[in-house]
Amino acid sequence: MSQEDPYKIFVTHTFQEHEEYAQVFEYLEARDNFFYQNFSDPEVRLEGGGEEALQELIRQQIRPVEIVLFPAGIYGQNPRLIDFQLKVAQAFKKPIVTIKSFGGTQVLPRETEEVATDTIEWNDRVITDAIRRIGRGEDTAMWDVIEFDPDC
């Protein structure tokens, strides 16, 4: 993976601001040499067209991605819209990674939990590893380096 070949991601959203949506990108930006292209656009505004236009917009955002990230804390903001995004991801055979709600306070319906390819915790390395492993099938075996002071 390089700047020329970024990971193509979609993060579920409700077309409203949400802390967990923004936090996903803070975590991704915290990783050195991790390049991604965000296909989700929660700031787009539809002029007329109603629900069908909104659904088509979501399909357009999900179609080109390699992986869908679902921060679970967003679910309560608009369950119907999030359910639709997850169904579109399934229809396009896109893997879905659920990121547990920050602090583990959000309880999801069982159907929502079952669509996830994997469920992970809030951790920048865990999130990027899931994107690499599930989105592209890359080996993510990483070693933590722990330095010891021999004089202790």
Care to describe what's here?
The structure is a single chain. The chain has about 150 residues and is α/β, with parallel strands linked by helices. The chain has a single domain (about 5-135), classed as Hypothetical protein MTH538 (Rossmann fold). It is about 35% helix and about 15% strand. The protein has helices at about 20-30, 50-60, 80-90, 110-115, 125-135, and strands at about 5-10, 35-40, 65-70, 95-100, 120. Strands 2-1-3-4-5 form a five-stranded parallel β-sheet.
Order of helices and strands: EHEHEHEHEH
Question: Overall mean pLDDT score?
Answer: 87
Task: Name the CATH homologous superfamily.
Answer: Hypothetical protein MTH538
Strands in their spatial order, largest beta sheet: 2-1-3-4-5
Terminal CA distance reads: 40 Å
* Structural class estimated from helices and strands: alpha/beta
Largest sheet: 5 strands, parallel
State the share of residues found in helices, binned by percent. 25-40%
Beta-strand percentage? 5-15%
The top-level CATH class is Alpha Beta
Low-confidence stretches: none
The figure for the number of domains is 1
